[in-house]
Amino acid sequence: MALVMTTASVPESERPAYWREAVGRALAPMAVTVRHGGPFEGRVCTERLGHLRITTIEADAQRVSRTAAHLAGATAAPAPAADHVVVGLQTAGTATLLQDGRRALVEEGDLMVYDTGRPYSLDFPERFAHRAVRMPRWALGVAEEDLRRVTGTAITGTEGFGALLANFLAPLTASVPPCAPAVAGRLAAGVVDLVATLVDERIRGDVTPAASQGEHLVLRVRDHIDRHLADPGLSPGSVAAAHHISVRYLHRLFEGEGVTVSRLIQQRRLERCARELRRAAVSAPPVSAVAQRWGFANPAHFSRVFRAAYGLSPREWREARDELVPAG
Fold first, then answer.
1. How many Å apart are CA 3 and CA 26, to the nearest integer?
2. 183 and 316 both lie in a single domain
3. What is the pTM of this model?
4. Residue 161's closest CA among 113, 108, 216?
5. Rounded to whole angstroms, how far apart are CA atoms 247 and 237?
6. What range does the domain containing 175 cover?
7. d(CA 51, CA 194)
8. How far apart are the C-alpha atoms of 55 and 117, rounded to whole Å?
9. Which residues are CB-contacts of 166 (< 8 A; sequence separation ≥ 6)?
10. pLDDT (tens digit, 9 = 90+) per residue, 120-169?
């Protein structure tokens, strides 16, 4: 259930203190300074998705700072704020992020990364909207030195891997879907995996060109297919879901690969089967067992596609193994 806190019904004189408490509860204890005079308005909404906390803030101009004093006062709660990393998506207005000696201007549509375990500040010079995805450091699994190379930086949300992450987070954080705990856990794990990949991309040389990002994603898809060949449910749909992209985009990625995703899955499965069937008779398992092991649930279908690929039935291939040249 979402927790919503708004200044709408709070007396004007009490709003700064109320807002400071609201932001502290949503993100972490920090100092809040309202930028301009006049009535201040703000709204913060916090929801949970597995082990993630997703917070949407819409408010007037302000500066928020988490100082060494705030860190010194942190307590060992079950999940203390000092043990989290935040990925922010700026959906309206601009922000200036300071952390680890770096200053970054974050524009609408950009991403930012900051660590609640070290001092940082965010300056919003005008009314803004900001979505923060807070995740436990243990879940991210990124080395401290690598994380420090990414915090305090702005990441464009219009190209490269930043665009992939921003496009995934935007609808998810706009309306966190009600779902069963198991589903929420898988979604949260997907978000964390994407963020860890983003960190890896950044430390390997900033944002690479979009074409290289596509090539990198193709390599990841091919590796995913090889690791899940035994799963009968492996399909373009499951592959796309595992990489948080649409099936249409997946097919577009493979337009220059000379093979469709479905065909690639079938080819790789057949190669694994052919390899096993070439083993010596003493150790080779039954043909049906080989087919099932590599994702072919229907023996008749397996025999048809194997003959089409190798010119022999699986049994003929096994019997002629001593005369065959291994498939290249």
1. 9
2. no
3. 0.60
4. 216
5. 6
6. 3-208
7. 15
8. 18
9. 89, 109, 110, 111, 157, 158
10. 999 999 999 999 999 988 887 777 778 888 888 889 888 888 888 999 99
